[in-house]
Structure formats: C-alpha cells, structure tokens
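Workshop exercise sheet. Pairs work together: one partner reads the sequence aloud, the other fills in the structure field after running the prediction. Swap roles for the next sheet.
Pair: D.N. / O.F.
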Amino acid sequence: MENLDYFTRHVRTPYELDEILKPKQYRDGGGIDNVSISDLEEKLNSCFIKLEDWLKDELIKFIKDHLVYARNETTHLKKSIKALNKSIKKLEKEHPILDINNHNDFEIFNKISNKKHQVIEEEFIIDYYFEQKKIIKDWAKEKRKELIKINKTKRKEADKRLDEMFDRLSPENDGENFNYNNLKEKETIVYPFYCEIGALFAQGFITIEKKGFNNDYKFKGESFSDISKLSIHIKKEILKTEKAVRQYVNDTLQDAGQKNFYNSKTMMNKIAVYCNERNIETTTDFQNIYTKLNNLH
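Structure field:
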C-alpha cells in the first residue's frame, strides 16, 4: 500500500497517467478527448526516462494493470452497446413515425438520438482501447527487457564491489580471524532481493521447532502449520512482494538446497553487509553460523 501511495503521488498524478490512458470526455463530434494514439508511446517514454529504476518497474506494472482494466472495460462496453441497440430497436418499433413538432414524439426522438450517440461514443472507446493495446503491450515488453538489462549490469557492478570489500576484510589479508563486527565499510550497493529474506533470518524472526513428530514453523513467535503458509505470510504481509520467497525459507530451514543461506558464503556475506549497513541487529546464532562458514572456506 505504501509503494502504491508513493507511486500515485510521485508518478501517476504528476504525469497524468490516467488522462493519458483512459478516455473520459468526448468531443461534440463523438471523438475522444484523450492523448492521441500516435503520441501515447512518446508520453510514456517521457515519464519512464525520468524515474528511478524501482519506479520504472512500478510503472510497467501499472501499465500491465491498465491492460486488464481496458479489457474488462471493453467487455462492459460491448454489453452496454448491445443493450442500447436493443433499446433503440424497441423504441423505433414502438414509434415508427415521429412528429418532432409533437412534444411527446420529440421527447422520444431525443431519447433515441441520445442512445445512438452513446453507442457511437462507446464504440470510439472500444476502438481506442483496441489500438492502444498493441502499443502499450509492446512498450511494456520492451521496457521490461531494458530494465532487466540495467539491473543485471548494476548487479554485476555491486557483486564486484562486494567481492573487493570481502577481499580486503578476509583473514588472508589482515592476518586475523574473520570477525563479523569488522564489517564497517559502507558502499552504495544494489543488494539482491534475497538479502531482505536473509535479514529476517539474521534477526531470528524465522525459526523452526520440533513438536513431537511435527515441525512448528514460526515468524516472530507466530506459528504456521507448514513452510508454505509461513512463506506466504512473509511474502504478502512482511515483505509485500511478488518475488519468490518460499525456496529461500524452505532450503534454509531444512538446511538443504541451493538457496540455503547457511551453506552459502556468497549469500551470507551479502546478507551480513546488508544488515550492517542498515544497522540491523543480528542474533548471536547467526553471527556464529556466519563466522563458522567463513572459517570453513
């Protein structure tokens, strides 16, 4: 909700995205008072290029959500047009001849004319959404690829800086045992998403306890019957993300698998720096696992 409100305040409203994407008013001739299809891509690009990467991602999601809205709106309009045409035919059948000089006939004439005009307006909107669909669908696909490429480049640069940092902090370089508390160096780094999950483990929030033949999975003391329910809670309620969470939680709690934090020096190093940079207090158990892992490799 917080990201949605921020997006609305800083992107959706100032860049008038609703005005760009959704036709709301009509000209006397039945046209749509909206950005022309030919200018739509230019308007979106102008917005996209000015945003930070995470807001660019939010913009792409917003555009995809609009496609769903447009599809639903088109379905609704088609039903509306069908009902309007049925009503027009009924009125014309009931009143085959109208005298506009007669007050009652004039009212019926206006009623039929208004319904026909509404049909024209709604058909314009359907045509607009049809033309719009391909443009913004292709735009979103292109920008998603562009953003993935940007993030990959930043991730490689961040990994390189992290590797250099740990080379400087390693036992081979300083002649001392590796100490978690030596991680004082701070850099502006784009951290992998899993660091957010790892930080929850580091603080002791995610745990597993044996209860007879069953396991009790917990987040800050709240019990869950299985890892799936625990992971959904972390994903939806804590991290509020659509990214994958379960595999990291499962592998780490089960102490098995490729996404087990406690068996990966690379992931644990990054989680440690992530926590240190944000002044996140970690448990003694986590620090011991971290130190032991570095001594083993």
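Discussion prompt: The radius of gyration is 29 Å. What would you look at next?
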